[in-house]
Amino acid sequence: MTNRPVPQEQQAVVKQQAVDDRRLLALPALLLGGAGTLMQAIHEGVEQRGFTGVRPAHGFAFVRLAPDGASIAEVAEHLGVTKQAASQLVEELLRRGYVRVEPHPRDARAKLVTLTERGWACTRAADEAALEAVRAWAGELGVDRVEELAADLARVARPGRLRPLW
């Protein structure tokens, strides 16, 4: 076998592909960083509104509990955790006054977990904090660019459950 020289135009294409790949690989870190920044802003905003001791995982559970409640098994499935872990999380939220646990109206073996008024107030505080964070992005990038970004992400992001990965 002989090593044939690679034509210059082909070398240029290979170099450009490497540059493009490096740029593309920056996107996952930026998206995750943006999500982390948003989650931190929501967390801090919730605390500033008087809801201390609430963790991001609680917020993910609140999403499943609104509007009609859920069983512990449904919370576990939504969060991607064991029923035991979901039960512990629900117990913590119950002690803090964010949820109530009642007999399930359709399943005698299960309990229905619903948000209390305090839980709903915390959810509203999280929504307000999220809006503040996105408004800051709009102030930096412009409203039109943020709307374009949202539309672009809606085209490629798979809709579904949001869950913590920790």
TrEMBL record:
Entries under Gene3D superfamilies matching the protein: Winged helix-like DNA-binding domain superfamily/Winged helix DNA-binding domain (1.10.10.10)
HTH marR-type domain residues: 1-158
Span of the signal peptide: none
Matching InterPro entries: HTH_MarR-typ (IPR000835), MarR/SlyA-like (IPR039422), WH-like_DNA-bd_sf (IPR036388), WH_DNA-bd_sf (IPR036390)
GO MF, one annotated term: DNA-binding transcription factor activity
Domain of life: Bacteria
GO BP annotations listed: response to stress
PANTHER family from the UniProt entry: MARR FAMILY REGULATORY PROTEIN, TRANSCRIPTIONAL REGULATOR, MARR FAMILY
Protein name in UniProt: MarR family transcriptional regulator
Species this protein is from: Actinospica durhamensis
Source taxonomy: Bacteria, Bacillati, Actinomycetota, Actinomycetes, Catenulisporales
